[in-house]
Structure formats: C-alpha cells, structure tokens
Specification:
mainly alpha, Growth Hormone, Chain: A
Length: about 375
C-alpha cells in the first residue's frame, strides 16, 4: 500500500507538470524541461538521505513527500518527455527513429546498471550512501545540461511563462484537425501507447510477486539478475539492430509490429514458466519487445509539427502516468484472483491484450501505404 501511495504521489503531480514543461519547451526553449526533473530528483534524494540517517525506524510517510516533490518537478516521465522532445527537434524524420531508439536503449542500460550498482553499494555501505550517489548523479545531470547542452530556441517570445494555457495547448495539440490522416493516426498511436504502457506497468508490479511464489520461490537477488539480464538484452538489441533497421529503411509500423509479437510471445512463455531455465528464456524470446515504445514515439513525432513536439510528448507523458496507475490497479487486482487456480493466467491475459495494438498498427500501416500509393499515382 505504501508503494501504491508513493506511485500516486509521484504520478498525479507529474500529469500537470509534464504538460506545463512540454508546452514551455515548445515556446521558450528545451533546456529548462531537461533540468527540472533532476532538480526534483535531487530534492527527493535529500529526503531519502534524511530518512536513512535519522529516521530509518520512524514513520514511512516521508516517502510520500519525496515522491510528491519529484512529481511536482516532472518526475521520470517528464525527463523522458524532455529528452525525446529535444532529440526529435534536432533530428530529421529519416534519422529520428534511430535516434529515439538509441535514446530508449539508454533507459534499458540504466535499468541494467542501476539494480546491480545499487545492490552492490548497499552491501558494502548504507542506504544513505546509495541515495547520496543518486544526489551526485542528479547534480552531474544539471551541470551537464546547463554547461554543455545547446539550447533549442522556442517558437514564441510572449510573457506567459506560467499559465494554464500550457496545459490546454498540450491537450489540444493531440486532438486538433490535421491534414490527411494525421489526426486519426495520432489517436491510433496514442491508443497503442495506452495499452502497451499499461501492460508494462502491470508487468513490473506483479512479476516479482510471481517469481516469489511457488514453484520458483526466488529471492530478490535472483530476481535482480533476471531483471538485469532482461534489460541488458533489450538494450543490446536496440543498439545493434537499430543501424540495420535504419539502413534498410524498415517502416516504423513494421518495427512496432515485430516488438508487439515478441512481447506477446514472451508473456505466453512467462505464464507457463515453472523453472529457472524457462524464466531466463523469457528475455530471449521477448528481446525485440523493446522496439514497441521507441517506434511509437517516432511515429507520434511524425504526425505533428516540430514546434508541437514538446506539447505532444507532454500529453504522452500524461498517458504514461495514467498507465502507471491503471496498470497497477488492474494487474494487482487480477493477480490475487487468478493465482488461486492458474498463477500464469495474468500473463496470458497480457499476451491477449496485445492483439488490440497489433490490429491498430497493421490497419494504420495498410492505410498509410494505400494513401501513399494513391498520391504517387495522382502525382504521376
């Protein structure tokens, strides 16, 4: 319950701040949205350091303060929004998929290094030392952005630095009329994001519980090895497969479809896993699942103007926050029910859910190919 409360404390403020930061980046420049999430992370790390040094046996509620502070400054999803907006705004449409994919790979590399480094440091030091390192890393990020990252100047110079219009702009950007099928495509891709990100959030919540249960009975150390192996494999696939996909001009739709199929197959195997060997096969069969999110981000960016990237990605960040809450609610509610008669049924349910984004992506791919063929004939 404390973990769920912490998630809510982080996600709810992030919904507002992500919209403000996304619109701000489009109007005035993209440096501030890059810096503020780390400012929030720095302040929340101070709270955790205080708890580690002075309050380790005291009340738990200060973690809600730390999460709330991080959420007010944008949180992790605003960080993703800011860096994706920045990379998208300085890249061409041809190179954007490759750049966003490599950017996504950094998340997986961080997910690989973080648990091992944090666990190793904790084994030889204390919680305060771990959070102290997090504090230092946030300082490094802030200094790097301020000193070395080139500013991308916004499109407007009015004085509405803090206004509800920022939130309104983020919402209207994703729903206003556009040429061709761009608005319909935008809605379809957002629906895919909603489903896929909800499943990802639910998976993160229940996989550890599943591995702790019979017959696996894993401890946290074994789970951390599994988690690290999964993220390491996903990052390697993203880094080494992206240049080939970019060279052969593979469409974003096809890349996403491959990712959806790989992810669904991985869930099927996970649901039947009763041994360590089967569990460690799951990251192998699902290694292409890491293509889903970066290809969707790239497709979304190609439906809007460059000056709208921040607002569009801010709305995606809000969707991601909602998915975090929705995934936690749905999967944590269903797993205690399904585990009584079939422990892996929840993962098979997740696999079936992937049919919806698969159909949407296939339909948009065929529609876009048909429209391109018609335009080519008319041009001829």
């Amino acid at each position: 319950m404390w973990i769920l409360s912490s998630t809510v404390s982080l996600a709810l403020p992030s919904i507002i701040s992500a919209n403000v930061l996304g619109s701000w980046g489009d109007r005035f420049g993209r440096k501030l949205p890059l810096v503020l999430p780390s400012v929030g992370g720095l302040l929340s790390a101070l709270v955790y350091i205080w708890m580690s040094l002075c309050n380790l046996s005291g009340p738990v509620w200060p973690i809600l303060v730390a999460s709330g502070i991080s959420g007010i400054f944008g949180g992790f999803v605003s960080c993703i929004m800011a860096v994706t907006s920045y990379v998208s705004s300085i890249s061409s449409q041809h190179s954007r998929t490759a750049r966003v994919t490599v950017l996504e790979a950094m998340t997986f590399i961080g997910g690989t290094i973080g648990p091992f480094a944090g666990g190793g440091l904790l084994s030889v030091s204390s919680h305060a030392a771990v959070f102290g390192c997090i504090f230092i890393f946030h300082l490094i990020v802030i200094a790097y952005v301020l000193l070395f990252v080139r500013e991308v100047v916004g499109t407007e110079t009015d004085s509405s630095y803090c206004s509800c219009f920022h939130i309104r702009d983020s919402i209207t950007t994703c729903f206003r009329s556009r040429d061709g099928c761009k608005r319909a495509n935008l809605m379809c891709f957002l629906a895919c994001c909603l489903i896929i990100m909800t499943i990802i959030a639910g998976e993160l919540d229940i996989t550890y519980l599943y591995t702790k249960d019979e017959p696996l009975k894993w401890n946290y150390q074994t789970y951390s090895y599994y988690f690290g192996f999964k993220y390491a494999l996903a990052s390697l696939v993203l880094i080494f497969a992206t240049p080939a996909l970019n060279y052969f001009l593979i469409p974003d739709h096809i890349i996403c479809l491959v990712g959806i199929v790989s992810k669904a197959v991985g869930f099927v195997v996970l649901g039947f896993s009763t041994t360590n060997t089967m569990m460690f096969i799951v990251p192998v069969v699902s290694m292409f699942s890491s293509f889903c999110v970066p290809s969707l981000r790239s497709l979304l960016s190609k439906q809007v103007e460059t000056c709208e990237l921040g607002k569009m990605y801010a709305f995606v960040a809000c969707v991601e926050n909602i998915c975090t809450l929705l995934g936690s609610l749905v999967f944590n509610s269903l797993y205690p029910i399904t585990r009584t008669f079939q422990k892996g049924l929840i993962f098979h349910f997740a696999a079936v859910l992937h049919i919806v984004p698969f159909i949407i992506m296939w339909w948009t791919f065929l529609s876009n190919e048909s429209a391109a063929y018609t335009n080519l004939n008319q041009g001829g």
